[in-house]
Structures are given as C-alpha cells and as structure tokens.
Specification:
Layout: H1 30-39, H2 48-72, H3 76-93, H4 95-99, H5 110-119, H6 133-136, H7 160-169, H8 171-188, H9 193-199, H10 216-241, H11 247-269, H12 283-288, H13 300-303, H14 311-316, H15 325-335, H16 350-362
Helix pairs in contact: 2-3, 2-5, 3-11, 7-11, 8-10
C-alpha cells in the first residue's frame, strides 16, 4: 500500500526522465530462486478464517478505539485510544495489499467486505490499488519509470524525505477532493474524466505514472466503488456542514487517516533500498533492493503488519498469502547456505534503514 510523492518535472511541466545507473547488473541466483519455490509449494493457499478474523478484529478494535478517542477528547486516555485506533485501522487498511494479490475465488466476498469495512470509510477503495500494484511486480517494470511504486529516493536530495512524508499527511484532504468534488465534476464535464482516471485514481508514489483505463468487470467494479466512496464523502461533508457530525469528530477522523498514511509512508521509505535509477533488474536484484525485517524485531508487527515485514520475500514469492510468509522465511533461512544472497535482504529494524536512506540522500549528486 503506497500514497503520494514528489512531482519530478522540469519548469515546463515535462516529466524528468530518470538517468540509467551504471551499476553492474546482478545475475539471478537460480539456486536460491529454485529453493524458495520448492520449499514453499504447500503454503500458497489462503486461509479464509485467518483473513476474515484478522480483518474483522482489526476493524472492530480500530473503530471502537476511534469512538473512544472522540468521546474522551484531548485527554491522556483519549490520545491513547486514538493511537490504538490508528494502529488497528492501519493494520486493517493494509489488507488492500492482499486484495490486490489474492485469487478472489479462494476468498469469496473478502474484497467486498474489505471495501465496506475499510476502503470506502477511509476513502481508499480497492480499485485505487488493484491493477496498479501488480505493475510493481512486473519483472521488466520494477524500478523503472513505468513502475508506479518506485522512486530512486536514496539518490534524491535530503529535503525529498520530509516532503515525501508531508504530502502523505495531506492525504485525507486530497481524498475528499477526489471523491466529493472530482467524481461528480467528471460526470458533468466528460473531458475531465480521462484526466481523473489517469492521474488521480491510483495509490502510487511515482508522479510520472499515468493509469490506463480499466476494462470489463474491473471497470464496472471501479465505478461501483468510486460512486459509493463519492456518496460517502459528500454525505460526510454534508453532515459536518449541518452539524450532524461535530467538528471535533471530523477532525479526529481526518487526523486518523492522515496518521495512517504517514505510518504507511514511513514503512514505504524502508520497504526498498530505492537505489535503482531506471534500468531493468533481475529478480534477484529486485529481491536485494527490497527489505525483510524478520524476528526477533517486534515493532515491525505494528509498522509493517499483514506480512509487510517480509517485503523482500514477498517480491520473491508474490503468490504467498501473508500468513504464510513467516513460515516460508523460517524454512528458507534454515535450508539455504549461510553465504546465500537470501540472507542479505534481512535487516534489524526501522532506525537503521531510515539512517541508510538519509545517508544516501546526503551524498546524492
């Protein structure tokens, strides 16, 4: 799951092309790839009971804590309840990543359930990620200008990192404008619709990415979810304007979405090393440019939930359900040689990864 980022364009508004780096290419480690595949063949089936119980529990805890935060106000207990709400709803929201990967026949109704519980209420319906995230996993797109979820952040200027986070903080305002204003306006002004679809309908970090129109069943689902989110947004703003929803509750709502997006943006900062500058990469190179933060680290359970702490492994085996990634990592780590490149994608925690990224920006040309 990603959000917004920096617009890398020149003064004339033309996208700035990425320069191709001169780093030596990394060949695929076929022994590692084969071992990873063979050791995890029995882990590919999603378990509905785990998916549903996790999503429902996270949602119930998140909304109950949100209600407590609104009721208790700016007290110590109110702030504590708000933090619990942010973390629980962030976990529930992170299932958008699973929705973009799972075979829906294996989890009937889960996409609809997620959108009703989380996607529509938090203004991030699944169509903004489905059909986008899969491009990030395309071998010939990863790390290139055509990857919607990649920027060479390690080679950008130091000010790019705080700006990267600041833009995420404004996400709820952007979401409300997108659905309460642009959706109905694009129906009235048909010439606006292609712009809305191409530029404002994807959760991505590459500002040069332009989304292609969906077709068939995907387009019907897009319209259903977009209209539902638009109705929710307009109704919410109307309720605030008429005093049905108090300004305090609305402020907590906006702050909650903003905090979720900031936490996710911090996670995004350390999901990859962000050192590629446009060239195509082997699968092994993509794996090494990605990050695992496995146990014994405990905090990643909060800031990289729903399997996101195994992000490098996910790039290696994108078909594995989130609940299988821990077992897959244990099997591969135990079976593969100590000198294998598999172990080189594992890191201790968030501080060291952020420091590495910051050092990269300090030496960027």
């Amino acid at each position: 799951m990603n959000s917004f980022s920096l617009d890398r364009r020149d003064a004339a508004g033309v996208p700035t092309p990425r320069t191709v780096s001169r780093r030596a290419p990394v060949a695929d480690d076929r022994a590692m790839l084969r071992a990873a595949s063979e050791l995890t063949r029995d882990l590919t089936a999603p378990r509905p009971a785990i998916y549903w119980s996790d999503l429902i529990a996270s949602s119930v805890i998140g909304y109950a804590a949100f209600a407590a935060a609104v009721t208790l106000g700016a007290s110590g207990w109110g702030i504590a309840a708000w933090v619990v709400s942010v973390l629980a709803l962030y976990r529930a929201a992170s299932f958008i990543h699973e929705v973009s990967h799972i075979k829906h026949a294996a989890l009937p109704g889960f996409r609809l359930g997620w959108n009703v519980l989380i996607g529509i209420p938090l203004l991030a319906p699944s169509f903004t990620y489905e059909g986008v995230h899969n491009l990030h996993h395309a071998k010939t797109r990863y790390g290139t200008i055509d990857d919607p979820e990649y920027l060479p952040l390690a080679n950008m200027k130091p000010w790019s990192l705080p700006l990267f986070l600041a833009v995420a903080a404004l996400a709820p305002i952007g979401f409300l404008v997108r659905y309460a204003v642009l959706t109905p306006l694009s129906l009235i002004v048909p010439s606006l619709r292609p712009v809305v679809e191409a530029r404002y309908s994807a959760l991505c970090i590459n500002p040069d990415f332009r989304r292609r129109p969906a077709e068939g069943a995907a387009r019907r689902l897009w319209w259903q979810l977009e209209i539902a989110t638009s109705i929710w947004s307009i109704a919410l703003l109307g309720a605030v304007a008429t005093g049905v929803v108090p300004l305090w509750a609305f402020g907590v709502y906006l702050a909650t979405i903003s905090a979720i997006m900031i936490v996710n943006q911090v996670r995004t900062l350390v999901a990859h090393l962000w050192e590629n500058e446009g060239e195509e990469m082997s699968l092994t190179a993509q794996y090494l440019d990605s990050v695992n933060v496995p146990p014994p680290a405990l905090l990643p359970f909060l800031w990289a939930p729903v399997g996101l702490r195994y992000h490098a492994l996910h790039h290696l085996l994108p078909g594995l359900p989130y609940h299988a990634l821990g077992e897959a990592h244990r099997r591969i780590s135990a079976a593969i040689e100590p000198h294998s490149v598999y172990h080189k994608a594992s890191y201790k925690g968030l501080p060291g990864l952020v420091a590495r990224l910051a050092r990269g920006t300090m030496t960027a040309r």
